[in-house]
Model the fold of this input.
Amino acid sequence: MNENLKIAWRNLWRNRRRTIITSASVFFAVFFAVVMRSYQLGSYDHMITGFIESYSGYLQVQHTKFQDNPLIDNSFSYNDSIAMAISGVGKVVSVAPHIESFALVSSGTQTKGVIVLAIDPEKEKKFSNPENKLVKYRITGKAIDLLKKSGFIPGYVLEKVEKCMGGSYSSRSRLELEVGLSATDNDLYIPYIIKSCEISNGFLSNEDKGVLVSDKLAGYLMVTIGDSIILMGQGYHGASAAGIFPVRGIIKMPIPDIDSRLIITTIPAAQKFFDSEGMITSLSVNLTSKSHRTMKEAKNMINLLLTDKTTVTKTWEELNPVLVQQIQGDSQSGMAMLGLLYFIIFFGIFGTVLMMVAERKREFGVLIAIGMQKRKLKSIITIEMIMLGGIGLVSGLLASAPIIMYFYYFPVLLKGDLAKMMEDYGWDAVMPTAWFGPYFYWQAIIVGMMVILATIYPLRKIGKLREIEALRS
Amino acid sequence: MKVKLLIFLFFILGYKPGLYAQNLTATQIVTKADEKLNGEKSSFTVMSMTIIRPSWKRTIEFKNWSLGRDYALTLITSPAKDAGQTFLKRSAEMWSWNPTINRLIKLPPSMMSQGWMGSDYTNDDILKESSVVKDYTHEIIGEESIGDRLCYKIKMVAKEDAAVVWGHQIRWIDKKDMLFLKSELYDEDGYLVRTETGSGIREMDGRIIPTLIELLPSEEKGNKTLIEIKDIKFNIAIGENYFSQQNMKMVR
Done:
């Protein structure tokens, strides 16, 4: 066996050019496939985490009719003991009670249909932590004028800041990313930029009667902290719901679609507004991982805990079939692209194999004529093929790994019109890669299968080889 | 002699009102019933409305002032959360005033098909100006008893150019007092949409009226709206200027 390996290795390097071309085609196929797939999976993951962890939760306990008919009527009575029991279930990270309903919001002459989400500010800290998403910095014309006046900021930095006009950010790092200065410039100028863009913002206290307004919605309604908004809707069992709420803070939601229509308030305030004392519409549960097994196990455990038979636990996939299908559809088209790529590569490999067999027909004839067993020859060729594929595969994976790692930690931030377009579609304009997972190993399996498929041809040729004919050719 | 004969004839005919009524046409019957229902110039009503749903029920109490067909003002008095809300109708327009948010809202056309205060009555039902006399053709299709009262059963088909919601209606009109006791309302495809029944016939402020009205939508099982007239006063001294946006905020 050792001997076979040695012969195969030497055979490969006897025709260096052929080997390099074949491995290179495998290399590029693997490289592009892995990077493409990683970006794709990464952006799904980003979408899902953004939506799930900050909004709907991995699992939700709901009234059985709530999903089909999300009315406040389909709510259930809630006390802390259910939440306590659920947080005792394994792999549950946090449990947060929510009231979610629809209402009309109005300020001045502006009116819009919005989602009203009521939270328990204390419990929510462990769930989506909206406090983190409060808008801290906003780049306005006034802020830029202030920077200009200071005279300390050089022109090229100002230009970059001006490009981000109108943006609002909930953290310094996000602002740094968006402005995109070099590391030294960051240290020098960001403190000044931050100082001029800083805005004061507040959060809800536990029994607060005020609301948080999402950033885009606040822009539409033209309200800031301290203003009041009017909410109108339908309450529990047909009661009319109407109230005036002071705006306590502005919040930046990562999903643009939600950012333009979300109002957050406290559970007691919402219960008073909707006339639904003691009722909530959902209990959102976050888990340690979003693997199907974890979700299924936790779901079954929680269902056992529910004594109220009108309630049921649902996974985020059951709750957001549209998002799941959107991702599936996009994933399928991505896979089709990969399939096409591999298809072309396969014929590339097959072509070289075909040529190799034709070139080495005489050589094979000689080997068998001087007494080499066909079986041994076959195994040498197989090893050669595996090595050929292996070199391309390993180098492809190795080359893609640093790229994946880099963009996992420093994702691509889209800017300008492309970013606007993505945000219009309801996606965050960030393109991270996915960490190494099954998709990475799958490339190896696919390339391996292609190589095996391509090996069948030379093996059959050797099997049918007639020494005399081969020697004469 | 001739004069005596005329008086005699008049006497006889005058003493046979039953016979006289028998010969009424369908349109005359509907006109009479409509006059009974809407004939008075103005009214003040205290009512309660119970909304019944498969899993819950809710009662709202309100007062209503009305003048002719065009003007109406409604004040919710109970439950406490909704109390103080007022609704004003002036011909084809409707406003709502909500004291908790200090806002006067003109109901947009898009809200017309929504239930008023969550009931089975739509805002459109309250606003509709169509007349059972003018917008329909009438035909007596039989006689039936509703409870212990014998009624004309009249089929009313909407006229082609009439701006009405219903394709046709079947109404049962009490023979004795000319009251609408039951109505079946069908859409233009001939499907039954809702049934309204009047009962609890009593004399109130000198007039005989059904004081309990039940509305049964046929598409939604278990849904029902009951209206009970608790007190009614006819021909109160009230003018057009009573039905103003200012008064919506002041009326008690």
Q: What stands out?
A: Chain B has five helices and 13 strands. The mean pLDDT of chain B is 85. The first helix of chain B runs from residue 2 to 14.
